[in-house]
């Protein structure tokens, strides 16, 4: 799953990582001093580490157990937007048994990913943004279409 430098910077903001801690994380995870020096694989590793910190921070703030950190109950605003658009499109879709699975597949398809993201909350924001735009386009093409 490709990760852009912008996605890493957004994750840094979500984790509320000060620049010094961010640079230490870059060095620890990838041996780099700047995100510009990261290879695509290193960007994925750095992004995942920052998102792990975001989940840990959410657990500390919400007072939930550490095991629930892997299944976030509070989605990011972009993921909430993705769900809102999905529910708007839902009447025009054939039977969708698993909403989460359909959305993961949709995100993978519009981003040309070989594998499904583990969850919408850990998918890079750039992937979610592209999926939001694709859902908007699909809604414009099929306004109020009946369920098949």
Descriptive notes:
The chain is mostly helical and 148 residues long. It folds into 2 domains: 5-70, no CATH class; 77-141, no CATH class. Helix content is 59%, strand content 0%. The chain has helices at 5-15, 19-30, 40-62, 77-89, 99-110, 125-141. The model is unreliable at 64-72 (pLDDT under 50).
What is shown here, in short?
With 148 residues, this protein is mostly helical. The chain is 59% helix and 0% strand. The chain has two domains: 66 residues, no CATH class; 65 residues, no CATH class.
Keywords:
148 residues, mainly alpha
Which quaternary structure do these chains form? single chain
> How many distinct beta strands?
0
Calculate the terminal CA-CA distance, rounded to whole Å: 32 Å
**Helix-residue proportion:** 55-70%
Structural class: mainly alpha
What is the C-alpha radius of gyration, as a whole number of Å? 17 Å
Tell me about the biggest sheet?
none
Report the portion of residues in β strands: under 5%
Task: Supply the number of helical segments.
Answer: 6
SSE order, one letter for each helix or strand:
HHHHHH
Question: Unreliable runs, pLDDT <50, ≥5 residues?
Answer: 64-72
Identify the overall geometry. elongated
- List the domain count as a whole number: 2
Summed over residues and divided by their number, the pLDDT gives a mean of: 81
């Amino acid at each position: 799953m490709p990760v852009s430098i912008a996605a890493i910077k957004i994750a840094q903001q979500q984790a509320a990582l000060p620049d010094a801690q961010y640079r230490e994380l870059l060095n620890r995870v990838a041996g780099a001093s700047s995100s510009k020096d990261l290879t695509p694989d290193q960007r994925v590793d750095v992004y995942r580490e920052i998102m792990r910190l975001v989940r840990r921070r959410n657990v500390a703030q919400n007072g939930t157990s550490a095991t629930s950190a892997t299944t976030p109950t509070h989605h990011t605003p972009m993921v909430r937007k993705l769900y809102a658009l999905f529910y708007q499109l839902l009447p025009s879709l054939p039977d969708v048994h698993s909403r989460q699975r359909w959305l993961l597949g949709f995100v993978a398809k519009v981003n040309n990913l070989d594998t499904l993201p583990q969850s919408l909350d850990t998918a890079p924001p750039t992937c979610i943004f592209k999926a939001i735009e694709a859902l908007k386009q699909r809604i414009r093409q099929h306004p109020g279409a009946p369920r098949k």
